[in-house]
Design goal:
By secondary structure, the protein is an alpha/beta fold. The chain is 59% helix and 9% strand. The longest helix is centred in the C-terminal third of the chain and has 22 residues.
Length: 805
């Protein structure tokens, strides 16, 4: 705005230095919002597209629609404009915005303001009133300059709740609004009750990057460098594209996921600077923290700045990372403490719009009460301001007469509670009953941003009514801020909100009785389950919390099982194991019954598989889980629903070389499969038999079962049947074992044909693990045939494939 001329419209003037003025009074509007307003006002009467606004207000930065929505909402509050009957800013559906008032250009000296011009310019230079943080801001600025030169940097900002970690980072990023070639992506870790979604903050950051104004450039980079990550972002692809990606990346290991993410980030940061902001890292899952730790150790050049905020003493992993980064040359640890009296006086100057001598005494009182805690300070000021106690003492404005103000301020400060939580609770009690009910309903949601539709369902009101009440609170700056819109898979679209600070949410949640909390969580779980019915895995972790808090332990266990499946797919064994162990603990809260035993058997098999994948085939914990599953199966007697349990036990026994037990279990699987009409179970029964028989040297039996299993893969639903259990295609596996068995019998031509079929099928379905398996078995068959060149070619391709994946 520095090159612009002042614009006047209605009672307002938009000045390049003073900002937005109403008469002689300067209104507090953030720098980004002023950029947006200047663009709209300078093109009054014309539709300005969202793309134009993004290019003007955030040049070179990838941000989401929510950032623009937040600016428009802030401008409407400042202009006292109504979105439904606008006077100044009209939303043109699916196109952009139109400024309705005619504007005229004022001469540069048309304004005389009581606000010092230097102070106004300083306010415009940042995204908010950040005081007392010059040194931390300088550290962030210096780190960004180094990152821009290709030297990756990490800045870890640590401090207690409400100390200003988020505000500091927002102010720093707000100062970069005009920086070309800068991308910003933010991911928020979420506090969960006993379960964390692997890589959630990183996936969120990638999704925001791809949904930004230039997001179309990032999706091809993910497809090239990080297909396993793109497969976990369903909103960015069509269903058919996602299925293809899932086949291509099935069985991806933790190492592969970490390498892919590093490759993708370094690709983005090769010709532009990327700021990756991880918020509330103390709640982050183990996989995210492992990546963060590994990324800070890498020495490859990258224009990358990692900004991480965290509370100390919550996560041992984060505390250990903080201790290590203090000694890393590429990192800075920034501990935030309370503000001093001078900083609090600067806050008073910003709130009052002037600098009066009486503010020094009030700053001392506030500092003594809050120990410089920024959030506590602002909440206390919110108590004083509506009573006119922050007005100039020389006047006799509304509220208390000037001479009486100091005594009233002192009396009020002594009357307010010493506890921040108690002070927030008193503010809640000043709200209307409708506002209290909606805020308390929303407080049970762990997500940083939540839909008004969920709060409405919990409070038992309509969505439109809830949106109006919540938006009113946000406009007053009371507890909430608006965050654009939220859309659920069932088609529900509603305004989205977040709490101004998590301390508000925690205080509101603390007001709920035990019975009310259970009731609200049950309603939330039912509404989310209906909303995500078409894609339940997207909300599994969130649903698990609500079901557990609502004491629906069986439903919570099912959601935790779904969360464990997601974690396993992402190669996050630790998170999968924790989810399954919590699910098993919840089952113990249920009364004993055959249904509970059946559910436990299924969970124990999954737990055994997860442990075996991460700790090895001989892990004692895997053996314990599978033995418990088998004992439960024997107690229940054999039913077709228990097929997966017996399959897991067979896999463990066969993998350990306990072939007598494996033969018995394969026979049991045959009995269960023959009692079912499901071809997939018959295929897996044959799968167990061909592997067991091959290991026993019963080659004819192995070939017969492999042929019978492959026949089931050639029908219309063959692909569906072939991948029910395990991390590879059963059809490919059948031909691979047949090739080995035929070669061992000396039937070399038949062995070659079986190996070629296995490789061709694996290439057709595009599954790398199955292809590697087929190549290894086919190479072994060619070795038996004396085909040294063919053996070498297939073995080399398998090795290269294994290395690549």
């Amino acid at each position: 705005m520095s090159e612009a001329r002042p614009l006047r419209f209605g009672h307002y003037t938009l000045d390049p230095v003073e900002g937005l003025m109403r008469g002689r009074r300067r209104l507090h509007v953030t720098r980004q919002s002023l950029r947006v307003l200047h663009l709209l006002a300078s093109r009054a009467g014309r539709v300005v597209t969202k793309e134009e606004v993004f290019r003007h207000a955030w040049p070179g930065i990838a941000v989401t629609d929510a950032a623009l929505t937040s600016c428009i909402q802030e401008l409407r509050r400042a202009l006292e404009d109504d979105a439904r009957q606008p006077t100044y800013i009209e939303t043109v559906h699916r196109r952009g915005f139109r400024f309705l008032k005619p504007t005229r250009i004022e001469p540069d000296d048309a304004l005389a303001s009581a606000v010092p011009r230097a102070a106004a310019a300083s306010a415009l230079a940042s995204s908010g009133p950040v005081v007392g943080r010059d040194e931390p801001l300088a550290i962030l600025e210096r780190a960004l300059r180094h990152a821009g030169q290709g030297h990756r940097r990490c800045v870890l900002v640590v401090g207690e709740p409400g100390i200003g970690k988020t505000t500091l980072v927002e102010a720093f990023l707000g100062r970069q609004g005009g920086t070309a070639g800068l991308h910003v992506a933010r991911g928020d870790a979420v506090e969960r009750l006993g379960v964390s979604e692997p890589y959630h903050p990183l996936l969120e950051a990638l999704a925001r990057l791809c949904r930004g104004p230039r997001g179309e450039a990032f999706i091809p980079l993910l497809r090239q460098y990080a297909p396993a990550w793109l497969a976990e972002l369903p909103a960015l692809q069509s269903p058919s594209e996602r299925r293809a990606l899932q086949r291509q990346t099935a069985g991806a290991t933790r190492g592969r996921l970490l390498r892919e993410l590093n490759d993708a980030i370094e690709s983005v940061a090769s010709d532009a600077t990327l700021v990756l902001w991880l918020e509330d890292a103390h709640w982050a899952d183990a996989s995210t923290l492992d990546w963060l730790s590994a990324c800070t150790r890498r020495r490859e050049p990258a224009r990358l700045l990692l900004v991480v905020t965290a509370r100390p003493g919550i996560s041992a992993r984060v505390d250990a990372l903080c201790a290590r980064l203090r000694h890393e040359p590429c990192a800075d640890v920034v501990p935030l403490g309370g503000l001093d009296e001078n900083a609090i006086r600067e806050i008073l100057k910003t709130r009052c719009g002037n600098d009066a001598p009486w503010q020094a005494a009030l700053a001392r009182q506030l500092h003594a009460r809050t120990e410089g805690h920024p959030f506590f300070t602002h909440v206390l000021l919110d108590e004083l301001e509506p009573r006119g106690l922050l007005a100039d003492e020389q006047g006799g404005e509304q509220g208390v007469a000037g001479r009486a103000r100091p005594a009233h301020r002192e009396a009020l400060l002594h009357a307010v509670p010493d506890s921040l939580r108690q002070l927030i609770e008193r503010q809640v009690e000043g709200l209307s009953l409708d506002e209290q009910q909606l805020l308390e309903a929303a407080s049970i949601v762990d997500e940083p941003t939540w839909s008004a539709a969920l709060a409405a369902a919990c409070a038992g009101v309509g969505i439109v009514e809830a949106e109006a009440v919540l938006a009113g609170l946000a406009r007053r700056g009371a507890f909430l801020r608006e965050e654009g819109k939220a859309e659920w898979p069932d088609g529900t679209v509603a305004a989205a909100f977040s709490f101004v600070h998590v301390l508000y949410r925690d205080a509101l949640r603390g007001r709920l009785s035990a019975a009310r909390r259970v009731e609200l969580n049950r309603v939330a779980a039912a509404r989310l389950e209906a909303a995500f019915g078409a894609a339940p895995e997207q909300a599994a972790a969130q649903l698990a919390v609500h079901f557990e808090e609502g004491r629906r332990f069986d439903r919570a266990a099912r959601c935790l099982q779904a969360a464990a499946n997601t974690a396993s797919r992402r190669g996050a064994g630790e998170e999968a194991r924790l989810s399954l162990e919590r699910a098993l603990a919840l089952l113990r809260e249920l009364p004993a019954s055959p249904e509970r035993d059946e559910r436990e058997a299924e969970l124990q098999v999954l737990l055994g598989s997860v442990v075996m994948a991460s700790d090895g085939w001989a892990a004692p914990a895997a053996e314990a889980a599978f033995d418990r599953a088998r004992m439960l199966c024997d107690r229940l007697r054999k039913t077709v629903q228990l097929f997966p349990s017996y399959w897991g036990v067979w896999l463990y026994r066969w993998g350990r070389g306990d072939l007598a037990a494996a033969r018995d279990l394969a026979a049991t699987l045959g009995t269960l499969a023959r009692s079912s009409e499901r071809p997939a179970l018959r295929l897996q029964m044959h799968h167990a038999h061909w592997a067991t028989a091959f290991s026993l040297g019963e080659l004819d039996v192995s070939i017969a079962h492999a042929d019978a299993g492959f026949a089931l893969c050639e029908g219309d639903n063959g692909d569906e049947h072939a991948s029910v259990y395990g991390n590879h295609d059963a059809g490919v596996c059948s031909r691979a074992f047949a090739a080995r068995a035929l070669a061992a019998q000396g039937r070399l031509e038949a062995a070659a044909r079986a190996g070629e079929t296995a490789v061709a099928r694996a290439r057709q379905i595009g599954h790398p693990f199955s292809l590697a398996l087929a190549l290894v078995f086919s190479a072994a068959a060619r070795q038996a045939m004396g085909d040294a060149p063919g053996c070498a070619d297939e073995a080399s391709e398998a090795a290269a494939l294994a290395f690549r994946h």
